[in-house]
Amino acid sequence: MKLTLKRKFIAVLALTSLLGACSLFKNERRFEPAKLADIKQSIVVNTVWQTSIGSGGSAGFAPVYADNSIFAATPDGTVVRVNAENGNIAWSTKLDTKLTSGVGVGDGLVIVTDRKAKAYALNAQTGEKVWDTELSTISTMPPIAGFGKVIVRADDFRVQAFDSKDGKLHWSFVRTNPILSLKTNSRMALINNAVIVAVPTGKLVSLNLNDGTVNWEIHSASAKGPSDIDSVTDVVGQPLVFNDGVCTSSYQGNITCYSIKNSRLTPVWFEPFSSAVGLGYDNNIIYGASIDGTVAAFSLANGQIAWSDQTLINRGLTNPVVYQNYLYVGDLDGLIHVYDTKSGSLVGRFSVGSSKDIVSPLLPTDKGVVVQNGSGTLMLIRAN
Questions:
Q1: Are 189 and 295 members of one domain?
Q2: Is residue 173 one of the residues assigned to a domain?
Q3: What total number of domains does the chain contain?
Q4: What are the C-alpha distances in Å from 13 to residues 22, 180, 230, 253, 357?
Q5: How far apart are the C-alpha atoms of 268 and 136, rounded to whole Å?
Q6: Which end of the chain is more exposed for a tag (fewer CB within 10 A), N or C?
């Protein structure tokens, strides 16, 4: 039986409940979210603009910044293009279906997927539907588009490439399904006519966009125990891709960086760090938010830890992002926590206007940080 894990740390909680029933855990309170103490706020986080776009968010929904616009979607079928300067809605399209992921933006298209296992391509300028096509099964990973292809990774881990012009299937790539997998904010990346995508059991592959053949493959994490839950080692978040290397994070695994030369990968460093949300990056520093709520900064060159903070233990953190020397991370109570990137000190805290947890990944832009909160509000914030 295939089981998909739907919350960031549901695997940990499920394991705790199981063992707790067997009286092996006596201190289940260790999984309770940390209570927040007052902090001395040395910065002020302001809302530049906000607009209501639909019905909240989910793990498969990630806003995208392109052409001075924010593109986003919500589970109720709403897809929008918003002016990044002022939050005005350029267009809003309501599809007659329930969506499972979005958005992918590229080749003049905005791509979403639905519960009927279909992908929809909308015109990025007008919001009008261009084409739709059937998938192997539903997809809860945001699609990606570019170089004449639309790429979808379905929940059976099949990667499919469709023609951007008409939605015709070009190729399909699949690996054996694991018993358990983590349903979280994993995303793909496009570079040099290749798509980089996570596949089961802690692996990341680069596939040629022309025919789906494997350019290279890395193993970011390995199973560490005998149980099915121990075997969950999925690569999470969006891989950090550089001209000569790639860095990944994984659940029950590591942050791992590789150098790439002539399609050959050489491990540079790895650091044990279990995450469900992926990495942030700025100025040769990698930032991570772990499954237990640790926020840490690592040197890109060698993985040395610059600083680490455990103030936000078990608070269901989002991916960390950087804007103008501050690190932003969201939590399960709809709060944004702001760190000084140099010292690792918490310098600010901000409510996004909803007590629901922030599930969609934070999006850094050159204008601030975009947040899609749990109540369907899209907003741009920044610290002053």
A1: yes
A2: yes
A3: 2
A4: 14, 15, 13, 18, 17
A5: 36
A6: N
Regarding pTM above 0.85, the answer is yes
Question: Which are the contacts of 202, defined by CB distance < 8 A and separation ≥ 6?
Answer: 219, 220, 221, 222, 233, 234, 235, 250, 253
CA distance 318 to 185: 9
171 and 229 belong to one structural domain: no
Element (H, E) at 16: helix 10-21
Vertex 186, ends 178 and 81: CA angle to 5°?
Answer: 140
pLDDT reported for residue 338: 98
Residues 127 and 260 in one domain: no
Q: Quick one: which of 54, 175, 187, 58 has its CA closest to 115? A: 58
Predicted local distance difference test score (pLDDT) of residue 296: 98
**Is residue 43 within 8 Å of residue 383, measured between CB atoms?**
yes
User: Where does the pLDDT of residue 244 fall: very low under 50, low under 70, confident under 90, or very high at 90 and above?
Assistant: confident
Pairing of strands 180-182, 3-5: parallel
One-letter amino acid of 107: D
Task: Give me the domain span that covers residue 105.
Answer: 60-177
Distances (CA, A) of 362 to 214, 234, 301, 365, 379: 30, 20, 25, 10, 10
Could you tell me if 156 and 110 lie in one domain? yes
Strands 159-163 and 169-173: what pairing? Answer: antiparallel
Helix (H, G, I), strand (E, B) or coil at 87: coil
Give the least confident one: 10-19, 41-50, 199-208: 10-19
List pLDDT tens digits, range 104-137. Answer: 999 999 999 999 999 999 999 999 999 999 999 9
Detail the DSSP E strand segments found in 158-226.
Answer: 159-163, 169-173, 180-182, 189-191, 194-199, 203-208, 214-219
The model's pLDDT over 325-366, given as tens digits with 9 standing for 90+, comes to 999 999 999 999 999 999 999 999 999 987 778 889 999 999
Residues 204 and 311 in one domain: yes
Residue 368 lies in a domain: no
**pLDDT confidence of residue 14:** 39
